[in-house]
Design goal:
InterPro entries: Imm7 (IPR028965). The protein is α+β, with helices and mostly antiparallel strands and about 120 residues long. The chain has helices at about 5-20, 45-60, 105; strands spanning about 25-30, 30-35, 65-70, 85-90, 90-95. Helices cover about 30% and strands about 25% of the residues. Strand 1 (about 25-30) and strand 2 (about 30-35) form a beta hairpin. Helix 1 runs antiparallel to helix 2 (about 45-60).
Length: about 120
Amino acid sequence: MSESILNAVNDNIPKILNNHDCGITHRYVNGGSFLDVLHCSNHRTPEADEIISVFTEISKAADGSYGVIYLRDDEDKNNCNEFQVFVFKHGTCSKVSDNKLSPCIPQIEADIRNTDK
């Protein structure tokens, strides 16, 4: 990526973030531009969708960027026992299956309903 394109991308990121208030932090570490966010709630909130939307927008603006978002929504009837993983790379966002932490019961939590143990 040329320096002029990199500068344009780095100028665009703060503009995108200024249009949203969802706790995403932009910082530079070891010469690289990084975004991070931690959002914890006890149910799916509009902020979670906004965070995914912002990362998607930035992924398109900064085509060489990449990252992942793990989302767990135990109130989602179709995905209540698994993490939803959003992968950002090459300017796109895709949702993929998680096989490291899901299914949450029994991978990371005990099944308290199972009393046969």
